[in-house]
Amino acid sequence: MENLEISLKQNFGDFPKRKTNSTTLKKLPDFEEQLLKTEKSENGKSCECDIPPAIGQAIIQQQLRMDLVLSEKSTMALELKSRKEENEFLAIEVQKLKDERQQILSVVSEYQHEVKDANGKNALTDAHPKHRLQNARFRCAGHGKKKGSFCFNLSKDKRSWEAAEQRCNRQGGSLAVIKDEDTMLYITNLIRGSSYDTSYWVGLSLDKESDRLSWVDNTTVTESSFQNWYGEIRPTRSERCIQSAGLQFGYKWYPSKCDREFRYICQV
């Protein structure tokens, strides 16, 4: 290394010494900071300039993303609160159903024991009343309303009389059978209190061959049977299916063609 330096000096002479100024070195950071804030114009002078558009746009987009995140966070918090409240409500409903199921099992068990004691065997007979089962507390499926040992459900869709009966059969029941004034009053209140105060098919029809008026449980309607006709109107072979009318016909029975589509009342 020393030989190289001697050779260079012989050929080029001594190198000029670099002058250093401590004051200049101290100002370098200030100069670098100034470069971030200023920009040279065409005439060589420095001027204060606005934030470049690209950086400004990036800042705006970042702020928008932040606002969106905060909004989503707030929405998720509200949804979580709603889900918690819903779960609490469902837990209460499940407990109610469990309690009612236990009550039903208790009533049935007690009823079976009473029958067994009365007859010496585990069988149901007509000699024992069924009021315990009829008065048992249980819920009807869907929006059904309980009366005695039956649930009555007003449909939301419309069908012909025969299609309505088939629909009720699939639910384990039939179109409503109304054999007394008390049941009729109950049905009337159901229709009056529903969202659709209109006509509903019931399980009464006239046989087109025999002119026999009967319920779907094969019970014949006679002169001594309970009847609730609108005025003097009666079913005929052309209008042989019966509807329980709404307010328009005073909640009375009214015959109509069986292929017409009305709402219907299922009894399960």
Keywords:
268 residues; alpha+beta; eight-stranded mixed beta sheet; two-stranded antiparallel ribbon; 45% helix
Write structural notes for this entry.
- It is a single chain.
- With 268 residues, this protein is α+β, with helices and mostly antiparallel strands.
- The protein is built from 6 helices and 10 strands, in the order H-H-E-E-H-H-E-E-H-E-H-E-E-E-E-E.
- The chain has helices at residues 2-12, 22-37, 53-119, 131-134, 161-170, 181-193, and strands at 38-40, 46-48, 145-147, 150-154, 174-175, 200-206, 213-215, 241-244, 253-256, 263-267.
- Strands 3, 4, 5, 6, 7, 8, 9 and 10 form an 8-stranded mixed β-sheet that branches. A two-stranded antiparallel sheet has the order 1-2.
- Strand 8 (241-244) and strand 9 (253-256) form a beta hairpin.
- 16% of the residues are buried.
- Residues 18-40 and 122-130 have low confidence and may be disordered.
Write the layout of secondary structure elements.
Blueprint: H1 2-12, H2 22-37, E1 38-40, E2 46-48, H3 53-119, H4 131-134, E3 145-147, E4 150-154, H5 161-170, E5 174-175, H6 181-193, E6 200-206, E7 213-215, E8 241-244, E9 253-256, E10 263-267
Parallel strand pairs: 6-10
Antiparallel strand pairs: 1-2, 3-4, 4-10, 5-10, 6-7, 6-8, 8-9
